[in-house]
């Protein structure tokens, strides 16, 4: 098989892998009152620290309005809290609360068991190679990324 065909086969696998990963993440969230979208926001805040809604939206390649709704839901559950934003008075920063840190840590522990089982199937070189391929495709197709504040519907 030539390299173009090999890459095309990888691209064809991305959608079903994405769907199954989303379902697996959803299953691990049962009983937490956290949705897949809320989990993604918690992860960004856990990694980056306090961020504004537009910053989280850009990080996740999603519309600001979607992130705002998720942030309200997380705030209602006391998993995030507002902090003053010195750069913008009307766009507060959001940070994980202690409860948010605990809930996200518990979620990651559940997920790590699954990830560790799959890792047994691959060498470190396999995983590094896969990461290089996916990063190169992200870079190559970057010009097709939506503006998070004005996402276009797929036709």
UniProtKB/TrEMBL annotation:
<dbReference type="Pfam" id="PF12802">
    <property type="entry name" value="MarR_2"/>
</dbReference>
<dbReference type="InterPro" id="IPR036390">
    <property type="entry name" value="WH_DNA-bd_sf"/>
</dbReference>
<dbReference type="InterPro" id="IPR036388">
    <property type="entry name" value="WH-like_DNA-bd_sf"/>
</dbReference>
<dbReference type="InterPro" id="IPR000835">
    <property type="entry name" value="HTH_MarR-typ"/>
</dbReference>
<dbReference type="InterPro" id="IPR039422">
    <property type="entry name" value="MarR/SlyA-like"/>
</dbReference>
<feature type="domain" description="HTH marR-type">
    <location>
        <begin position="7"/>
        <end position="143"/>
    </location>
</feature>
<protein>
    <submittedName>
        <fullName>MarR family winged helix-turn-helix transcriptional regulator</fullName>
    </submittedName>
</protein>
């Amino acid at each position: 098989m030539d390299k173009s065909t090999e890459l095309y086969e990888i691209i064809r696998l991305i959608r079903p892998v994405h769907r199954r990963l989303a379902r697996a993440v959803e299953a691990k969230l049962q009983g937490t009152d956290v949705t897949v979208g809320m989990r993604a926001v918690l992860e960004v805040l856990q990694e980056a620290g306090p961020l504004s809604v537009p910053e989280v939206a850009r990080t996740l390649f999603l519309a600001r309005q979607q992130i705002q709704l998720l942030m309200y839901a997380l705030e209602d559950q006391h998993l995030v809290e507002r902090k003053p934003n010195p750069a913008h008075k009307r766009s507060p920063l959001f940070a994980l609360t202690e409860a948010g840190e605990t809930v996200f840590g518990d979620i990651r522990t559940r997920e790590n068991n699954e990830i560790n089982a799959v890792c047994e199937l691959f060498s470190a070189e396999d995983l590094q190679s896969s990461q290089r391929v996916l990063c190169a495709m992200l870079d190559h197709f970057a010009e097709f990324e939506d503006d998070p504040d004005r996402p276009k519907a797929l036709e």
